[in-house]
Amino acid sequence: MKCPFCGAENTKVIDSRPADDNCSIRRRRQCDTCLKRFTTYEKVESIPLVVIKKDNTREPYDRTKIEAGVFRSCHKRPVSVDQINALVDDIENTIFNMEEKEVPSNTIGELLMDKLKELDEVAYVRFASVYREFKDVNTFMSEIKKILDTKQ
Q1: C-alpha angle with apex 21: 17 to 25, nearest 5 degrees?
Q2: Which terminus in the chain has less CB density within 10 A, N or C?
Q3: Phi, then psi, of 5 in degrees rounded to 5
Q4: In the chain, what percentage of residues exceed pLDDT 90?
Q5: Predicted TM-score of the model (pTM)
């Protein structure tokens, strides 16, 4: 690691510990030449993920889009922000563990629907009505009947 102060190539690690997010390592280093100290962070490199949309266009993966959809579907429901974040984290881990560079949006949508069904049925129906683009009340009712049938 190059010293940011004098540019020397030789530095040594004085201290290493997990960073606040527990997904990276914070290292305190000292330059062998000028003896000044500085901090570096080491993080696992993730694969850039591309989402293939319904119309076959591609766009970079954006966690905030999933969060926004889940927040909208859980609006005025007894679902905490921590539960929503845990759900989004779970979806994100599943997606990244696929180790694919491109993931179809319908795969993400189906994963979300499965998790929402477990979390809150009303949020699930709200999300499904937008995601599956219900055209009329009958399709909406058939989705609700599926939920009721699985409860019995």
Answers
A1: 30
A2: C
A3: -90, -50
A4: 63
A5: 0.62
